[in-house]
UniProtKB/TrEMBL annotation:
<dbReference type="InterPro" id="IPR000073">
    <property type="entry name" value="AB_hydrolase_1"/>
</dbReference>
<keyword id="KW-0378">Hydrolase</keyword>
<dbReference type="InterPro" id="IPR029058">
    <property type="entry name" value="AB_hydrolase_fold"/>
</dbReference>
<dbReference type="InterPro" id="IPR051044">
    <property type="entry name" value="MAG_DAG_Lipase"/>
</dbReference>
<dbReference type="Pfam" id="PF12146">
    <property type="entry name" value="Hydrolase_4"/>
</dbReference>
<feature type="domain" description="Serine aminopeptidase S33">
    <location>
        <begin position="26"/>
        <end position="259"/>
    </location>
</feature>
<dbReference type="InterPro" id="IPR022742">
    <property type="entry name" value="Hydrolase_4"/>
</dbReference>
<comment type="similarity">
    <text>Belongs to the AB hydrolase superfamily.</text>
</comment>
<dbReference type="GO" id="GO:0047372">
    <property type="term" value="F:monoacylglycerol lipase activity"/>
</dbReference>
<protein>
    <recommendedName>
        <fullName>Monoacylglycerol lipase</fullName>
        <ecNumber>3.1.1.23</ecNumber>
    </recommendedName>
</protein>
Length: 277
């Protein structure tokens, strides 16, 4: 029997974070989701329902500055706070299920945050992590002068936001999904100078520190992603070695879980999770 409830997390700095749990009786595992830039957990209803149908409970929360959570849209005071927020979600899930295998699932910006959590924090409670289209590097590298300007501005105007310039056609091959994203009132296109420069930096840090990983990872990317770099994901997986399983989806864009092969993508994730437990 499925039970869906909302909850609130309180971050270490007092920020209120909106969450939702999709619980089932006697789950085989539990997954904690970290979504991407500008979006919110409501876009993952079908993902949660899929895992529930396979005896897996699902937890998710809106990142600070996103969805129904508090915070200026598209801004965070520091990248480390985002990592700490993920730890709050994992602790919440672990309190619900003390002895069930626990997995972290991060997409895009969430993939950046999840990867940094795995490499930097105490990950003893995790059985593994699922890393989808992670922001380790961007598909198009920003010009050097643009990066220098962003770093300079973030030093004295860290919360200054501007449009992230996303073209929704790069999300998926399904135009209905792309247009729904565009019309979604909880979606925004904002990113602050602080969030951009710190996520850019921490993505590169993760690439350079892959040897710190100690748990099984499933890393996947669509070959036609024009937002984050498939090559960076492949390099990251190769550098990790045996603990990493890498899957590349031909013809798929930035959101594999929403694209035309979404059923196959979700089945692949489930199969991998099943192998870990």
């Amino acid at each position: 029997m499925e039970e869906i409830e909302n909850f609130t997390l309180t971050a270490k700095d007092g920020t209120s974070l909106y969450g939702r749990e999709w619980l089932i009786e006697n789950p085989k595992a539990a997954i904690c989701l970290v979504h991407g830039l500008g979006e919110h957990i409501g876009r993952y209803e079908h993902v949660a329902e899929f895992f529930n149908s396979h005896q897996i409970s699902f937890f998710a929360f809106d990142l600070r500055g996103h969805g129904r959570s508090e915070g200026k849209r598209g801004h965070t005071p520091s990248h480390y706070m985002l990592v700490d927020d993920v730890e709050e979600l994992l602790m919440f899930a672990r309190a619900e299920y003390n002895d069930v295998p626990l997995f972290l699932y991060g997409h895009s910006l969430g993939g950046n945050i999840a990867t940094n959590y795995v490499l930097k924090k105490n990950i003893n409670e995790l059985t593994g992590a699922i890393i989808s289209s992670p922001w380790l590097a961007l598909a198009l590298e920003p010009p050097a002068f643009q990066m220098k300007l962003a770093k300079f501005v973030s030093g004295f105007l860290p919360s200054l936001t501007q449009s992230n310039g996303l073209d929704v056609k790069h999300l998926t091959n399904d135009d209905a999904i792309n247009q729904a994203y565009k019309k979604d009132p909880l979606v925004h296109d904002k990113i602050s100078t602080k969030l951009f420069t710190e996520c850019y930096r921490e993505g590169l840090w993760a690439l350079e520190n892959s040897q710190k990983n100690k748990i099984p990872l499933l890393i996947f990317h669509g070959t036609e992603d024009r937002i984050t770099s498939p090559d960076a994901s492949k390099t990251f997986a190769e550098n990790i070695g045996e603990l990493a399983t890498y899957h590349q989806w031909p013809g798929i864009k930035h959101e594999p879980h929403n694209d035309v092969k979404k059923e196959e993508v979700l089945e692949t994730i489930f199969k991998w999770v099943k192998e870990q437990v």
